Amino acid sequence: MAAVVVVYVVIAAVTHAFPFAKPGHSAAHQPIVLPTVPVAPGTSPAPLAELLPADVSASQCVTANPADYHFAIPGSMKVLDCQPGNGSVTAFQMDSFADYAKAWVNFNKWVGTYNAAADAHCPAQGGIPRGIVPWSNTYFPQRDGQLLVCWTYISGGSSFPSYAWSFPTEHAFLWATGLAGTSFSALDTWWKANQTQTSSPSPPAA
Q1: Which secondary-structure segment (H or E) carries 104?
Q2: Are residues 94 and 77 in contact, defined by beta-carbon separation less than 8 angstroms?
Q3: How far is it, in rounded angstroms, from Cα 199 to Cα 18?
Q4: What is the 3-state secondary structure of 119-137?
């Protein structure tokens, strides 16, 4: 894929996508966890385009209508639908930490990963249909609620490996899905190679 947690109209956004996976570090069957401490007061999030994966360019994205999604996105500030060529990446950013937290929960309830049994690996192992693990990179040190979620997205009778990862400090999350028939293994390889941004977002994560 050429660059990044995410949809057109459920199906459009779903038909294109990217997945990513990271080694698991937490206990198995953990539920979605929200940050216990929000971003420091007065801290401004980085522009959404600066959070995209290394091989996804903002030129490959269009601004999408939040109303086109099948889950509520309170305080939506921007939604980018990106089509790099071999999948799709949708990025969501809200206007406050509180609205980000609500949107992240709404999204996970919609895709069936909220408070559901999950493996501590992505891709999930042992026949478990979904996984939840913490993630971090050079620009975003590990922190509470900064999670990578993986599952199989079903649309129009087809299956799409999917990943979504959250940026609590940026009031944002991204969703990537591979093309129909793409393996989680391939998506994982892509994510590991591109989940770090090409340069430090500005301002840097608090």
Answers
A1: helix 97-111
A2: yes
A3: 21
A4: ECCCCCCCCCCEEEEECCC
